[in-house]
Write a structure and sequence with these properties.
181 residues, single chain, alpha+beta, 4-stranded antiparallel sheet
């Protein structure tokens, strides 16, 4: 199982009554009860959205870093808007006839990270941790010195983002090493 498989699996939770629930939104606690046959298209959608979002993020990031054009901000806002509209529109369409999960059961960020830790290899988790720390250090360097002609705010945003990723990878490493899941 690869990282995107783990990513798509982290959106599902078994409820107390044994049914399977799908929680597609990170901030909204709304979930949907799904059957085994309904799980497959939802996992494929989350898998595809993860890959497409990653590729688009890299392409937009490269465009912003390589070309110093004023249109880059507009390109970034437009691509993120289109990606968000496609993601939430697709989710809305896929969940249109699904039963709502009980309101007293929610999927927390910790549960998502524990699920990813359970299905991820040690090598992948250590790679994520080391890479995130290196990119965080690069963001600190940009914030402190302004290397590459980037404003210090760019370095601070990069430091915060990659710091959160380093925290998440560290949390998953600590969960994986503390007890068998």
């Amino acid at each position: 199982m690869g990282w995107f498989d783990n990513y798509s699996q982290s959106y599902f939770k078994t409820l107390r009554d044994g049914r399977l629930a799908f929680y597609p939104y990170l901030v909204a606690p709304r979930g949907y009860v799904v059957s085994g046959e309904q799980k497959a298209p939802l996992r494929r959608f989350m898998f595809g959205a993860g890959i497409f979002g990653s590729v688009l993020g890299v392409m937009v990031g490269e465009a912003i870093l390589l070309w110093n054009l004023p249109i880059n901000l507009i390109l970034m806002i437009l691509s993120l808007s289109l990606l968000s509209a496609g993601y939430y529109g697709g989710l809305r369409w896929l969940t249109r006839n699904l039963e709502r999960a009980p309101a007293d059961e929610r999927l927390t960020l910790g549960e998502r990270l524990r699920t990813q830790a359970q299905h991820s290899s040690w090598i992948l988790l250590w790679f994520m941790e080391i890479w995130s720390l290196l990119l965080m250090a690069g963001g600190l360097d940009i914030a402190a010195t302004g290397k590459g002609g980037y404003p210090p705010l760019f370095g601070l945003v990069a430091t915060a983002f990659f710091g959160l990723l380093a925290w998440a990878a560290g949390y998953m490493l600590s969960v994986k090493s503390s007890k068998p899941l």
